[in-house]
Design a protein that fits this description.
Layout (H helix, E strand, L loop, with lengths): L1 E12 L2 E12 L3 E5 L6 H9 L6 E6 L2 E2 L10 E4 L11 H12 L3 H14 L15 H13 L5 E5 L7 H18 L2 E6 L2 H7 L2 E6 L2 E6 L1 H6 L4 H6 L6 E5 L2 E5 L5 E2 L8 E13 L3 E8 L8 E6 L12 E7 L4 E3 L5 E3 L1
Parallel strand pairs: 3-8, 3-9, 6-7, 7-8
Antiparallel strand pairs: 1-2, 1-4, 4-5, 9-10, 11-12, 12-18, 13-17, 14-15, 14-17, 15-16, 18-19
The chain binds adenosine-5'-triphosphate.
Adenosine-5'-triphosphate binds next to β2 and α1.
Pfam families: ABC_tran (PF00005)
Protein name: ABC transporter
Family: Belongs to the ABC transporter superfamily.
Length: 339
């Protein structure tokens, strides 16, 4: 069963099409990540599903019911914002209880639900504190607990980890994913961070300029990008794209290796001039140019750092290769032709 379906959704602000005909089905219990660059329409998409914004055209269905004319509260969705939106003058317990109070839930029932949500998110010991006495990660858990007590059909999360530092973010990411699996509530998670998207999403929907470019599992999107935008949005460094008889030829840096490291047939050999090298601890990235090809930007090769770089020097040409199975071809319009 699909929990959320959007059909041909359009939203126009003045002369900007923030969403330009997006159709998407989110399955019951799924963790779907909406990934795209800043300004591509992600927040607008969530706000329309939540009922906080009215679409210009198209339909939103929740559990098979068209909800276009249904109020945000009656839609059964809970949205967690980037800023968490906690009330600074209320304790954690009262912040979590807030949506229940406005629903007229009885006092003992509120107590039970707050305890249950706080227990699930590991914040039972913080119930008497106020938001300013909490770390960023703790605030995020309070915001999630407040969303959870409403027992929503769908969680809508808008970059909920963006205020956390890198280390806390990594642990909050896995905590959030485990939590979602435990409660099995359908979740739409917005981010512009591809690492977050790859690590968390059951599926990823890549959006650019209000248009959906591809929806698929992280590995499908990474290994078989539908177009050159998706290919160059995922991966660090992203897929190498070089001009090739009227289209583009793509290959990932980790598949572009010194010729002697690859054995067997079906290899494409390329002459690579290394201009600079970056040592990143676990890997080394070599940047440079290819003989006979125009690239959109520097071509990159990614090698495990433990591989000895005997004879490879900056400024010289070296024989590199890619397995033909790892080559991707894109047509004049950027769409993948063979994959
Ligand atoms: P970010 O990652 O930076 O938060 P986003 O992908 O969430 O961006 P949206 O906030 O959905 O993007 O905005 C999509 C486009 O619509 C942008 O060009 C934005 O300027 C425009 N936009 C959004 N809200 C409004 C509004 N209320 N009035 C006018 N334009 C708007």
């Amino acid at each position: 069963m699909a929990a959320v379906v959007v059909k041909d959704l359009r939203k126009v602000f003045g002369d900007v099409a923030a969403l330009d005909g997006v159709s998407l089905s989110v399955r019951d219990g799924e963790f779907l990540v909406l990934l795209g660059p800043s300004g591509c329409g992600k927040t607008t998409f969530l706000r329309i599903i939540a009922g906080l914004e009215r679409q210009t055209s198209g339909d939103v269905l929740i559990n098979d019911e068209i909800v276009n004319d249904i109020t945000p509260r009656a839609r059964g969705v809970a949205m967690v914002f980037q800023s968490y939106g906690l009330y600074p003058h209320l304790t954690v317990a009262n912040n979590i209880a807030f949506p229940l109070r406005t629903q007229g839930t009885t006092r003992p029932e509120i107590g039970r639900k707050v305890e249950w949500a706080a227990g699930l998110l590991g914040i039972d010991h913080l119930l008497h504190r106020r938001p300013r006495q909490l770390s960023g990660g703790e605030r995020q858990r309070v915001a999630l607990a407040r969303a959870l007590v409403r027992n929503p059909t769908v969680f809508l999360l808008d970059e909920p980890l963006s205020n956390l530092d890198a280390k806390l973010r990594a642990s909050a990411r896995s905590e959030l994913k485990q939590f979602q699996q435990k409660v099995a509530t359908t979740t739409i998670y917005v981010t512009h961070d591809q690492v977050e998207a790859m690590g968390m999403g059951d599926r990823i929907a890549v959006i650019d300029h209000g248009k959906l470019r591809q929806v698929g599992t992280p590995s499908a999107i990474y290994d078989h990008p539908a177009d050159d935008f998706v290919a160059s949005f995922l991966g660090t460094p992203p897929m190498n794209l070089v001009e090739h008889s009227g289209g583009l030829l793509g290959f990932r840096p980790e598949h572009f290796l010194p010729r002697e490291m690859l054995d067997g047939a079906a290899l494409s050999e390329l002459l690579f001039r290394i201009d600079r090298m970056e040592y990143l601890g676990s890997e080394r990235i070599l940047y440079g140019a290819l003989d006979g090809f125009q690239a959109k930007c520097d071509v990159a090769a990614k090698l495990p750092a433990h591989v000895p770089l005997s004879g490879i020097r900056a400024g010289e040409w070296h024989k590199f290769a890619v397995r033909e199975a790892e080559l991707r071809y894109f047509d004049r319009d950027g769409r993948c032709t063979v994959s």
